Amino acid sequence: MKNPFVYGEEVTGDAFWNRTKEIQELSRDIHNGQNVIIFSARRYGKTSLIKTVLEKVRKEGVLTVYVDLYPAITKEKFVEIYAKAVSRSLGKPTQRILDTVKRLFPKLIPKIVIRGEGEAEFEFDYEPRSVFKASLPDLLNAVHKRALEEKKEACVAFDEFQEITNYADDEVEKEMRTVFQSHRNVSYIFLGSKKHLFGKLFQDPNRPFYKSGKHMPLGRLPLSEVKKYVKERFAQGKIKLTQEVLSLIGGRSGGHPYYTQLLCHILWDECLDGKEISEKDVSQDLEKMLERESQVYETIIDGLTQTQKNLLIALSSEPKAQIFSSPFLSRFHLGSASSIQRAFQGLIERDILDKENDHVIFQDPFFSPWLQKRQ
Ligand SMILES: Nc1ncnc2c1ncn2[C@@H]1O[C@H](COP(=O)(O)OP(=O)(O)O)[C@@H](O)[C@H]1O
Ligand SMILES: [Mg+2]
Known about the structure:
With 375 residues, this protein is of the alpha/beta class. Helix content is 53%, strand content 12%. The protein folds into 3 domains: 19-215, Rossmann fold, CATH 3.40.50; 223-299; 304-374, Arc Repressor Mutant, subunit A (Orthogonal Bundle), CATH 1.10.10. Helix 5 (128-150) packs parallel to helix 6 (171-181), helix 8 (223-236) packs across helix 9 and helix 10 (257-270) packs across helix 11 (279-302). The model has no long low-confidence stretch (mean pLDDT 92).
């Protein structure tokens, strides 16, 4: 039997667990034309959730568009990527769809290209400087217009939406806000994973998107549910887990979707030779899991200043520390409070640390144990 635990890109079907409450709430919001802002750190399951929800409401008759803005690194690229996403949502590129596309964005020039496997797709050519400005309103109105024509509700999901803060100016941001405001029949979902940038977009009173939707933070999976899914999946492979082992898996991965899947994936591979899983196996596999993630953590560490590294190492050995207090600074030879203040700010902006209530936490729950192990 194939390993039922999947980690990496988004998951669907059997590998997608729970999120029942979120699916219901989001579906309701979409049918009501409500705009929703979904934030979580990376690998909490935003993309998996939104794709699952879009598939559900599409079957209920909603016109759905999913756009990944991660590759949309300039505003010109945004136009191209959004135009492509909207066209894709209209159907396979036939002459009839081509006519619709031409009517919806008259200033862009569509062409149909055939990919390797014979899959046809739209691409858009335009002279960026002159056409960009003129094509933007058409493009941003396209889904609304199409939904009215078809007498449908519509939903557009912008994944990694914080990327628009990197554009040369705020033209796209402003135009989007102005245009979207009048679209009662379209629900816009904004998803983001970089807290610092995403927060700026929606929490700064001077920015166009301030207070422009309902916030829906995405947390970890409920522990009882995680245990249920893990138990079921192992049972399908005729592997029984004791209550203690299940609790240990749940406790250590803490309902973090990605790490739960990764840990269980490794555990599953281990018991291929019919071995029963013990608590010791779980502990050993947690170590293996950290090893597998090493590359990711090394890359993060490489990009930091020495003071930032020192602060992270100190925090990993004293998780609830008051990081600006003299005893902490001197115990770990961290230098002045002002340089730590700067280092801390940099780590927040890089989405490595976060503030929770009164103390500082690592955004990635396994970064700290990895750092400790590395010492
Ligand atoms: N609902 C879920 N059930 C089970 N695993 C999940 C779920 N959501 C996410 N995951 C795990 O997290 C990984 C990353 O999910 P993804 O949707 O790409 O997260 P994000 O978009 O927030 O970065 C998946 O490969 C999977 O291992
Ligand atoms: Mg994602």
